[in-house]
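Thread: "does anyone have the structure for this chain?"

Original post by V.I.:
We have the sequence but no experimental structure in hand. Need at least a predicted one for the grant figures.
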Amino acid sequence: MPVESIKVPNLGDSKDVEVIELLVKPGQTVSENDSLMVLESDKAAMEIPSPKSGVVKSISIKVGDLVSEGHEILMLEVEGSASVEAPAEKPAARSEATFRQEAAPAAAPVAAPATSGGSSVELIEVPDLGGDSDVEVIEIHVKVGDTVKKEDSLITLESDKAAMDIPAPKAGVVKSLKLKLGDKVSKGSAILELQVNSAEAPAPAAIESKPAAPVAAPAPAAAQSASAQSAVAQKAASPQPAVAATEASSGEVYAGPAVRKLARELGVDLTQVTGTGARNRIQKEDIHSFVKTRLQTPVAAMGMVAGISAVPDIDFSQFGPIEQVPMSKLHKVTAVNMQRNWSTVPHVAQFNEADITDLEAFRNDLKGEADKKGVKLTFLPFLLKACAKTLQEYKQFNVSLHSSGEYIIQKNYIHIGVAVATEAGLMVPVIRDVDKKSLWELAAEVAAMSDKAKQRRLTKEDMQGACFTISSLGALGGTGFIPIVNAPEVAILGVSRTQTKPVYMNGQLVPRQMLPITLSYDHRAVNGVDGGLFATYLCRLLGDIRLLAL
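Reply from O.Q.:
Generated one for you, tokens below.
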């Protein structure tokens, strides 16, 4: 059996990465994709898998060495390479076919059902859902026999945070449906069979014909087969270190960056999650299982998050008629996030009032122009612009705290979330680059985002990336409230109803329109003096709209 040199694959931009653990020793038998060693860069740790099966003959590195792409790891006596030519051919052919299928997953279902009319039937599957799995089908927009165009909506899925439409990747006729309302689907789940014209799918036919060639050809030499197999194995193995990469910020948790990101989004403490992967690695399925378990016992879970005992359940039926109403997914997630944010963020609230008399007069003067543009100019676009300018002036509010507690992340963009009340619950779409947009652009975008929120059509991207949040009660009433900081942001603005009050100006009392505001902020990131300066500056901008032009 030949002995091959196994080398460090592509590590992205990383060079001189330290070897922190060797997972094999000479004489040990390893299978393809078994981990050989663990590397640690400044930002992450990663496992390097074996591209082939065999026996380790010698190891060329030791713990503490610094390696880069191309460094020799070990010498491997590869199993089953030269004894029989034909068997060696088949794995390589299967590997190539598998690689092509992974590169073009939509091509596989276009097998034999071609019709005499020059069309073929394709299986349409659920695309990448951004890490979500087991997402519920809440609406099916087509039925068997319907003709659909490319990008027409096929189904609507509802995750914990949003509803999303899945569009048709091609035009055609629906031959059969593979799911029903209430089904739980993930990436790759079958949606329907679609009959498309041959002109719509030339590429799958071409791909389909390619795998037959290497399987049928018995002639290539063993060396060529081994070389092809090695190339395919190396190509398949090289992305895996990135997949296996783990942040080195915590030595007690073994999880990759994607898993840590999911945990942060869901508010999960990874130290409480049991990993089911190799060497107790935490996987996305473990996070979802952990969250599902907590949501099934929400009262106990919320009590534990706060570090106090849970409120006991009471049989309220002994006092009179009751009704048990299930909480929606959105309501459950909102409850968990609010509990986490209130329990972990040390809140400080800064109260103030802004004199918006002149601003309201200016807004009323613009009603005619707003009607011509077909835009409803509310107070909110002015508030967005004022908050953006204040965030530019006081950059310490446009940060997030790193989980390590060692540094803060200063953001050089200004995206502001706007809380919208819907029948399903509270949603916070994000208005991006507020500082770069005009009042008219902001007015149109706020209206569009509010409509999407009320129709449950917001995507994950629509609700991510905010630096600061505005929660406005509008005309609902009240003289003030304390909003909860939406971590990892460090501040949120609560806005109550405008009231006409007597204000002492130029030696006399005059009626002025006063807007109560409350600035809540994370005292770990922002000092009290900064909070006072921020609120005062914001009120000054709202009191003199001309300052926004400077």
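V.I.: this helps a lot. Confidence is low (pLDDT under 50) at residues 82-116, 200-251, 298-306.
O.Q.: and The first strand starts at residue 3 and ends at 7.
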